[in-house]
Each structure stands twice: as C-alpha cells, then as structure tokens.
Amino acid sequence: MRSQISKWMLIIMIVIAPLFAYAATPVLQIIPDESSITFKGVQNGAPASGKFKKFTGTIHFDPDDLNTSNVKIDIDMNSVSMSYADFTSALISEDWFNVKLFPNAIFEATHFTKIDNNLYKANGSLTIRDKSVPIEISFDAKEQPGNKVLVTGSTVVKRTQFGVGQGEWSDTDAIKDNVDVAFSVTAKRE
Predict the structure, then answer these.
(1) Host domain of residue 146
(2) What is the CATH number of the domain that holds 95?
(3) Which residue(s) pair with 105 in the sheet?
(4) d(Cα 18, Cα 44) in Å, to the nearest integer?
(5) Does residue 116 form part of some domain?
(6) What's 175's DSSP letter?
(7) 54, 76 in Cβ contact below 8 A?
(8) Strand ranges, E, within the chain
(9) 3 state SS of 161
(10) Which of 26, 36, 87, 155 has a 20 to 30 Å separation from 51 between CA atoms?
(11) pTM listed for this prediction
(12) Number of domains in the chain
C-alpha cells in the first residue's frame, strides 16, 4: 500500500512540476503605448508598410532559464493600418486577412536559444487565418530603467503560406511573397 502511494505521489510530482517551473518564470506585462508591430512588403517594386495598433500577450521570460520561458502574443487583425485607407480596407477583406472570420493572429514560442549577450532566437508558430506555420524570430532583450525590458526583433514570413492574398492577389509578381515583420515591445516585470 505504501509503495502504491509513493508511486502515485511521484507521478503527481512529475505532472505538476513543470507548472511550478512556469509559475516561477518572471512575468512581463506589455506596455501598449511603448510597443509596436510593423510590417513591410513590396508591391509593384515599391515598399508598402503598415502596422498593427492593438496586441496583447503573455510573456514569461528568464534569460537565465530559457527552458521555462514562453511567449504568446495575440494580434488584433482589425487594428491593421497602412498609410492609404484603400490598402487598409483591402487587408481586412476576405482575400487578405478576412478579419470577420479570423479576427486574431497568434504567435507562440516555447523554445529559446541565446545567441550572444542580449541576442536570442525564439522558435515557435504563427497562426494567421487558422493556418499555423513554424517561425523563427531573432530578438534583442535589454534592461531598461524602471524595471522594464525592451525587446526588439524581426522575422520574414511568406504571406502565401497563410493564404493571405487570395484570388488575383495570390500571384507573387505584383505583390511579393516575403513580408518583413519587426517589433519593439517594452514590458514591465510584475
């Protein structure tokens, strides 16, 4: 009987131990007014850029314990904005982000690698229009006054992997497939 109780206690500890590890990882709260997500594509040989005005996230990041670090960023696709209103209207339409059916994009990462002093790599997935694609992001994390951290980084995504730009827009001659995404996130430790 005692060995059976010990066996169950061991199983319970194995199952809940990772939960304690995640709970111990520092939590960073995004400061929206000091954070941004921008993108740049190429249309007819000219750069076209925009941004997402609203996003939230959960950031558990410890540079000394990357194994327990994890990030989830939720982007409000209705908040997309470009310098021309016609471009913005096109992006929220069915052929592009289709925000009525897919109002959010999600980035999640649970695997981090330290590259240099403040330079890291995050491997995770990006979900747009209900299509999840593996993604790698390079980022820099620097301490700031006031118990804050500034995280800046970038990646390149292929819009067609997510079905962004359908019908006549699926051709990558006029609007290139690669989209550069950059972010600057200021977060405060809880």
Answers:
(1) 26-189
(2) 2.40.128.110
(3) 75
(4) 50
(5) yes
(6) B
(7) yes
(8) 27-30, 36-43, 46-52, 55-60, 70-76, 80-82, 104-114, 119-128, 131-144, 148-158, 178-189
(9) helix
(10) 26
(11) 0.83
(12) 1
